Amino acid sequence: MAILSWVMMGLAIWHFMIWLPDRVVGGIVGAFLIAAGGAVLGGLALNGFEVPGRADLETIVALDGIPGAIIALGLGYALGSWRESKAA
Predict the structure, then answer these.
(1) Does pTM surpass 0.85?
(2) pLDDT tens string for the chain (88 positions)?
(3) For the chain, how many structural domains are there in total?
(4) Distance of CA 24 to the CA centre of its chain
(5) Kind and range of the H or E element at 64?
C-alpha cells in the first residue's frame, strides 16, 4: 500500500506540470512516468529502501513521495530543456 500511495502522490505532483512549458523528456507521458518513478524512489530512500508494512502506514508515508517526484521532474525538465536548446 505504501508504493501505491507514493505513486498516487507522484501523480498528484504531475498534475501541476500543466503550468510549465512542455520540455520534459518524453513529453507529458514521460513526465507521468518520471513523476511516478521518482515518487517511488524517493519514498524508498526516505524509508531506508524498505517498504513499510500495512501496520506502519500513516499519512506521513504518503507524503514521502513528494520530494522524489519534484526532484525527478526537475531533472527531467532540465534534461529536456538542455536537449531542446542543443537541437536549436
Answers:
(1) yes
(2) 899 999 999 999 999 998 988 899 999 999 999 999 999 999 999 999 999 988 888 888 989 999 999 999 999 999 999 999 998 7
(3) 1
(4) 12
(5) none
